[in-house]
Amino acid sequence: MSFKAGMEMKISGKIKSGCQSFSVNIGHDTDAVALHFNPRFNEYGDTNTIVCNSKQGGWGSEIREQCFPFVQGEEFKLSITFNNDTFYVKLPEGTMMSFPNRFGDDVFKHMHVKGDVKVISIKIK
């Protein structure tokens, strides 16, 4: 997979009932994560909060988004774009959030989804 600045990644999935959290991770590998997008239903002291972070020689400072359009047991769609300054995530229901591209890179080749979620499709164009 090659995800380049200016491209759009569309992810659709279904959140399992009882899900505590899930994450979408984009970067170079599991130790170099430029975007850790982590909706938390009830985990690590967060309730119905989206937490974003990056990992490069350890985790950085978390950024929290209070808009939470995810529902356990239901499908969702996300759209992610980026440039060498910022990641933009279009949430279900159309809310847009951003997270700094702390790496400053314009190509990422690693992506993984973790947690109680079933991925239906991932499209990059």
Layout of helices and strands:
Elements: E1 3-4, E2 8-15, E3 22-29, E4 32-43, E5 46-56, E6 63-65, E7 75-82, E8 86-90, E9 96-100, E10 107-108, E11 110-115, E12 117-124
Structure description:
The protein has 125 residues and is an all-beta fold. The chain has a single domain (3-124), classed as Jelly Rolls, CATH 2.60.120.200. The chain contains no helices and twelve strands. The protein has strands at residues 3-4, 8-15, 22-29, 32-43, 46-56, 63-65, 75-82, 86-90, 96-100, 107-108, 110-115, 117-124. Strands 9-8-7-2-12 form a five-stranded antiparallel sheet, with no helix packed on it.
| The top level CATH class name | Mainly Beta
Would you identify the CATH architecture? Answer: Sandwich
- C-alpha Rg, in Å? 13 Å
In terms of quaternary structure, the protein is: single chain
Low-confidence stretches: none
The biggest sheet, with number of strands, parallel, antiparallel or mixed sense and barrel status, is: 5 strands, antiparallel
Structural class: mainly beta
The coarse silhouette is globular
Count of distinct structural domains:
1
Quick structural summary:
The chain contains no helices and 12 strands. It is mainly β.
Key phrases:
five-stranded antiparallel β-sheet; 0% helix; globular
